[in-house]
Amino acid sequence: MQKNQKKTIRKQKNASIMEYKACYWFRSCFFGYLYLEKKTLKDWRKCLTTSLNYMKKNNNYYKELRKKNKEQKAPVQNTEVDPDKEVIAGRNAILEAIKSGREINKILFQEGIEKGRLKSIFAIANEKKIVCQEVPKRKLDNTTTERHQGVIAFVAPYNYFELDEVLNKLDINKSTTLLILDHIEDPHNLGAIIRTAEASGVKGIIIPKRRAAVVSQTAVKASAGAIEHMPVIRVSSLTDAIKKLKEKGFWIAGTTLAERSEEYTKIAKDVPLAIVIGNEGEGMSKVVTKECDFLYHLPMLGKIQSLNASVAAGIIMYERIKDND
To answer: Rounded distance, CA 320 to CA 310, Å?
Structure first.
């Protein structure tokens, strides 16, 4: 059926090209005739209008034909995705989402995949009566751009935490650590930082509402499920959030290479600390830098004078808990 359609389209194209060429030949001959017979200007205008209308008609035909071809070749998009639901992909991310009690609408797994790899997911999903459906791999590919490992889940949108809510639940002491991300834009970096923060005992992460990465399926995948155990707080103003933290007894540590910055190994370990990680390209903003009580930097001994934001954050966070009883 498809071959016959292609042949028909090819014939139509060839016929239209011949008609288009014939139009040019007709116009040239007619202009020559007018010149030889010395017809009036009115006849010439009439001939030109007829010729241009014919060309325009063929042009529209080509446009419609190209449009139909694009529609035929366009991949079929999944129309079953609820816009009020989010998609998470990957075994670890889904497993941690189920364990944390996050609302799971449905789990889709790839046809023919080894059930042993998803055994732990199926066991908990069955216990919590979550619908699991076997679908072709193509459907998973059309639903998410992430590497899904043969399984995805439709979940309720992530609920961000309020700063006061987190602070009121915290037992604030000298080892309490929070993280402030000053306009981190890459969702992969956000997910990687969340993963390291959860592993190193950070109690919460503060991000701004504007010009910053959000908790998307990319960030969830990069966090390997750690997002389900880490409070992420969105605030309108980082400076206002910092002032509130200071009122609660937190000290603010920025990470930047400045005149008064110290080496990261001297990071404060005897006070509640909120560590600021700057933007991937521009670093910390001047307004946030002014609010910092301490400034720390990582030594750069090579020709490259910067590190990936998630790598730098990991080094700082683990230095904070080093030899910290």
So the answer is: 15
Range 215-224 average pLDDT:
86
Beta strands in 122-204 (DSSP E): 131-135, 151-155, 177-181
Structure letter (DSSP) for residue 279: B
Three-state DSSP at 132 gives strand
At residue 303, the 3 state secondary structure works out as coil
Which has the closest alpha carbon to 278: 192, 179, 209, 163? Answer: 179
pTM for this one?
0.64
CA 156-162-167 angle, to 5 degrees, is 130
Please report, as a single letter, which amino acid is at residue 224: A
R_g (Cα) of the chain, nearest Å: 31
Phi first, then psi, for residue 86 (nearest 5°) are: -110, 160
* Average pLDDT over every residue of 28-37: 57
Q: What is the pLDDT of residues 291-324, one digit of tens each?
A: 999 999 888 888 877 788 899 899 999 999 987 5
| Contact assessment for residue 321 and residue 200, using Cβ atoms and an 8 Å cutoff | yes
Alpha carbons 325 and 323: distance in angstroms, whole number: 6
DSSP element (H, E) containing 81: none
How far is CA 251 from each of CA 2, 256, 277, rounded to the nearest angstrom? 68, 16, 15
Hey, what's the torsion of the CAs at 264, 265, 271, 277, to 10 degrees? 20
Rounded Cα distance between 30 and 27, Å, is 5
Q: What is the DSSP letter of 280?
A: T
Count the Cβ atoms, other than its own, within 10 Å of residue 231.
19
Contact call for residues 154 and 130 (beta carbons, < 8 A): no
156 versus 62: the higher-pLDDT residue is 156
